[in-house]
Specification:
By secondary structure, the protein is of the alpha+beta class. The protein has one domain. It is built from five helices and five strands, in the order E-E-H-E-E-H-H-H-H-E. The chain has a five-stranded mixed β-sheet with strand order 4-3-1-2-5, with helices on both faces. Helix 2 packs across helix 4. It is globular.
Amino acid sequence: MSSASVRYFIITDESEIFRVSINKFKRLLKATSEEKLERFAGKRVRVAEICVKLENRKPIEVIRAIYYYLHFNEKGILDEEYLIKSRDIVFAAGDEISSIFIEKEQRNVINAQQEFAKRQRDHAVWWKPNMQLERNILDASIDEFKCKSL
Protein backbone atom coordinates (compact mmCIF):
# COMPACT_ATOMS: atom_id res chain seq x y z
CA MET A 1 0.00 0.00 0.00
CA SER A 2 1.46 3.36 -0.99
CA SER A 3 0.79 6.87 0.24
CA ALA A 4 2.57 10.22 0.38
CA SER A 5 4.13 12.35 3.06
CA VAL A 6 5.69 15.82 3.26
CA ARG A 7 9.11 16.37 4.81
CA TYR A 8 10.39 19.79 5.89
CA PHE A 9 14.02 20.83 6.14
CA ILE A 10 15.73 24.05 7.19
CA ILE A 11 19.12 24.70 5.64
CA THR A 12 21.61 26.95 7.43
CA ASP A 13 23.94 29.48 5.82
CA GLU A 14 26.64 26.81 6.12
CA SER A 15 24.40 24.36 4.20
CA GLU A 16 23.74 22.20 7.25
CA ILE A 17 20.41 20.39 6.85
CA PHE A 18 17.94 20.13 9.73
CA ARG A 19 14.76 18.11 9.53
CA VAL A 20 11.67 19.71 11.05
CA SER A 21 8.75 17.52 12.03
CA ILE A 22 5.39 18.27 10.44
CA ASN A 23 3.90 19.16 13.82
CA LYS A 24 6.73 21.55 14.69
CA PHE A 25 6.51 23.14 11.24
CA LYS A 26 2.76 23.66 11.66
CA ARG A 27 3.38 25.30 15.04
CA LEU A 28 6.03 27.55 13.48
CA LEU A 29 3.53 28.67 10.85
CA LYS A 30 1.20 29.88 13.60
CA ALA A 31 3.87 32.54 14.30
CA THR A 32 3.45 32.65 18.06
CA SER A 33 5.99 32.78 20.87
CA GLU A 34 4.98 29.21 21.79
CA GLU A 35 7.08 27.88 18.90
CA LYS A 36 10.20 29.75 17.94
CA LEU A 37 13.68 29.04 16.67
CA GLU A 38 16.03 31.38 18.50
CA ARG A 39 18.93 30.00 16.49
CA PHE A 40 17.45 31.73 13.41
CA ALA A 41 16.36 34.96 15.13
CA GLY A 42 16.46 37.92 12.72
CA LYS A 43 17.41 35.72 9.77
CA ARG A 44 16.06 34.60 6.44
CA VAL A 45 16.41 30.83 6.23
CA ARG A 46 16.16 28.39 3.38
CA VAL A 47 13.45 25.75 3.58
CA ALA A 48 12.97 22.61 1.53
CA GLU A 49 9.50 21.08 1.37
CA ILE A 50 9.74 17.60 -0.07
CA CYS A 51 6.81 15.33 -0.89
CA VAL A 52 7.77 11.66 -0.85
CA LYS A 53 6.02 8.47 -1.87
CA LEU A 54 5.72 5.95 0.95
CA GLU A 55 5.56 2.23 0.53
CA ASN A 56 4.66 0.37 3.73
CA ARG A 57 5.32 3.65 5.62
CA LYS A 58 8.87 3.91 4.27
CA PRO A 59 9.93 6.70 1.88
CA ILE A 60 10.92 5.29 -1.50
CA GLU A 61 11.01 8.25 -3.88
CA VAL A 62 10.68 11.99 -4.13
CA ILE A 63 7.51 13.21 -5.81
CA ARG A 64 8.05 16.97 -5.59
CA ALA A 65 10.53 19.45 -4.11
CA ILE A 66 9.89 23.11 -3.36
CA TYR A 67 12.56 25.47 -2.05
CA TYR A 68 11.61 28.76 -0.41
CA TYR A 69 12.65 31.25 2.26
CA LEU A 70 11.16 31.90 5.67
CA HIS A 71 11.97 34.96 7.73
CA PHE A 72 12.22 34.99 11.52
CA ASN A 73 11.96 38.10 13.69
CA GLU A 74 14.50 39.08 16.36
CA LYS A 75 12.85 36.68 18.83
CA GLY A 76 13.03 33.69 16.46
CA ILE A 77 9.30 33.76 15.67
CA LEU A 78 8.20 33.34 12.08
CA ASP A 79 7.53 36.68 10.39
CA GLU A 80 3.89 36.24 9.46
CA GLU A 81 3.73 39.47 7.44
CA TYR A 82 6.56 38.31 5.21
CA LEU A 83 4.89 34.92 4.81
CA ILE A 84 1.71 36.62 3.56
CA LYS A 85 3.72 38.90 1.26
CA SER A 86 5.55 35.86 -0.15
CA ARG A 87 2.28 34.08 -0.82
CA ASP A 88 0.97 37.15 -2.66
CA ILE A 89 4.15 37.37 -4.77
CA VAL A 90 3.86 33.69 -5.77
CA PHE A 91 0.19 34.17 -6.58
CA ALA A 92 0.93 37.23 -8.75
CA ALA A 93 3.68 35.33 -10.60
CA GLY A 94 1.48 32.31 -11.37
CA ASP A 95 0.85 31.60 -15.02
CA GLU A 96 -2.77 30.49 -14.92
CA ILE A 97 -4.55 31.66 -11.79
CA SER A 98 -3.22 35.21 -11.63
CA SER A 99 -4.00 35.84 -15.30
CA ILE A 100 -7.66 35.85 -14.32
CA PHE A 101 -7.06 38.83 -12.06
CA ILE A 102 -4.48 40.76 -14.12
CA GLU A 103 -5.80 43.05 -16.81
CA LYS A 104 -5.69 41.60 -20.30
CA GLU A 105 -3.01 42.91 -22.65
CA GLN A 106 -4.05 45.56 -25.09
CA ARG A 107 -2.77 45.35 -28.65
CA ASN A 108 0.11 47.83 -28.33
CA VAL A 109 0.65 47.62 -24.56
CA ILE A 110 2.57 44.88 -22.78
CA ASN A 111 1.43 44.07 -19.26
CA ALA A 112 4.66 43.30 -17.41
CA GLN A 113 3.15 42.81 -13.94
CA GLN A 114 3.42 39.05 -14.08
CA GLU A 115 7.03 39.12 -15.34
CA PHE A 116 8.06 41.49 -12.56
CA ALA A 117 6.28 39.28 -10.03
CA LYS A 118 8.13 36.21 -11.37
CA ARG A 119 11.49 37.96 -10.98
CA GLN A 120 10.57 39.05 -7.47
CA ARG A 121 9.41 35.52 -6.60
CA ASP A 122 12.59 33.96 -7.94
CA HIS A 123 14.75 36.39 -5.97
CA ALA A 124 12.87 36.92 -2.70
CA VAL A 125 10.63 33.87 -2.19
CA TRP A 126 12.17 30.84 -3.89
CA TRP A 127 15.74 29.61 -3.96
CA LYS A 128 17.59 26.93 -5.90
CA PRO A 129 20.13 24.63 -4.23
CA ASN A 130 23.35 23.65 -5.92
CA MET A 131 23.52 20.05 -7.16
CA GLN A 132 25.28 18.59 -4.11
CA LEU A 133 23.00 20.31 -1.59
CA GLU A 134 19.92 19.24 -3.52
CA ARG A 135 21.17 15.65 -3.63
CA ASN A 136 21.71 15.70 0.15
CA ILE A 137 18.25 17.18 0.79
CA LEU A 138 16.53 14.67 -1.49
CA ASP A 139 18.50 11.80 0.05
CA ALA A 140 17.60 13.04 3.55
CA SER A 141 13.94 13.03 2.57
CA ILE A 142 14.09 9.31 1.81
CA ASP A 143 16.29 8.58 4.85
CA GLU A 144 19.47 7.96 2.85
CA PHE A 145 21.36 10.99 4.21
CA LYS A 146 21.74 11.63 7.95
CA CYS A 147 20.73 15.06 9.19
CA LYS A 148 19.91 16.51 12.58
CA SER A 149 16.39 17.31 13.71
CA LEU A 150 15.19 20.60 15.15
